[in-house]
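so i finally got all the pieces together for this one. its four components total, 442 residues if u count the protein bits. some of the lines might not be protein, just check the labels. i wanna see the whole assembly predicted at once instead of chain by chain like last time, that was a mess tbh
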Amino acid sequence: MSSVTPANREGARPLRRDAERNRGLILDAARQVFASHGLDAGFDEIARVAGVGVGTVYRRFPERRDLVEALFEQEIDVVVARAEEAAADPDPWRGLSEFLHWGVESQAADRGLAEVLAAAGRGHERVARERDRLRPAVLSLVQHAQRAGVLRPDVGELDLGLVVAMLGRVGGPERADLRHRLVTVVLDGLAVRRDAPTPLAAVPASEDDLACVFEPSRPRR
Amino acid sequence: MSSVTPANREGARPLRRDAERNRGLILDAARQVFASHGLDAGFDEIARVAGVGVGTVYRRFPERRDLVEALFEQEIDVVVARAEEAAADPDPWRGLSEFLHWGVESQAADRGLAEVLAAAGRGHERVARERDRLRPAVLSLVQHAQRAGVLRPDVGELDLGLVVAMLGRVGGPERADLRHRLVTVVLDGLAVRRDAPTPLAAVPASEDDLACVFEPSRPRR
DNA sequence: AACGAAGTGGAACGGCCTTTCCGGTTCACC
DNA sequence: GGTGAACCGGAAAGGCCGTTCCACTTCGTT
């Protein structure tokens, strides 16, 4: 079980060195492009960023799904780790609220990640399986906080996921100020009881107000 | 200033009767199609539903914007009325929470409305002007609740709009159960103080869990 | 260094959606 | 009822984007 067997996994022969390098370039490009344009980004944009031809992208990842899954597999680890870390915090409420803030910001910064986490399922069984690795971690986070009596007992780990997804879609990448306010309000709503609201930071004089706080980079129609 | 002047407004002559009727049919169709497919819906779909040719839609509304604006002008009135009604409620908290629930559901039921309210601005100056009619009404709602000491004093009317928009995007039209839970949590977060959480209705055994709770009717990719 | 297999780029193809255009029809007015 | 202007439908043109394909290049091997 070593050395030069030509098949490394499932009978597939290893990629030639240049192909392997291109695969990496494509994944890096896709991460970047998906993050800013979402999962619908064109393959030619990815190819352009990667510095390869479109054909190369299609040969390596014949379906969009293949690319999404390969990327997601890398990214989900970070999220799981973060959730476990939060669950291990000696102060369960701090763990919870830090995870919430972090989760919201990472989804806001990466449209692709947000879309995979929210729309996963439907056909992407591999993605669904990966995503489910997140569930026990979040569940543990929720239970710790509930046992400590700080988190309302009638919310579940799915509610928490929903809340993160929801908040992560507020504003563009640059409107962390808006999201931060709303996260604070939601956390106040998740608490078992409190005597006064957690103070909100002021919104720095936004001229355009409510306009364009969702889907800020849509093509004009 | 009466009778037969050929120009009724801004020098435009009145439409022929059949044209006027078609205009109405198109608006009705557009309302319906925008509600389910969002503002990106194709003009031919609208034409099909209206029972007219595509050409007719284009002649009456040369730009998509014209159609959106004409529709929005009709719909915003309802929202404004509802906000004023809520502000006039003798129980300010009840007014606020009923408005929140209603606003969230109406946006969830009408993707087009949600998109106009959120993305308005950019170029649609007519839409922006209409939308601003909503502001004083919501402001009054907020102030009543704050003067009564039930709504936290550090949120503004823009926060409220943001919250409605955000919650309205959770789940498909059929997942009012999920939205209802989250609205309750957010309301608990908006309250000045409370001793115990408002109880949440249980989520009716959702098998698919978190999957597909956002953008539930996207084209498969 | 020479050969064959694997890999590459990007032009070309095809489907989809938006927009235009025009022969025929309907309406309003005389 | 006749006339002309306004209006209509839907076919066709045009543009955009995802996908395929193949002549050429690169790599690994002998």
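Chain A touches chain B through 59 residues (CB under 8 Å).
Chain A is about 60% helix and 0% strand.
anyway lmk what u think
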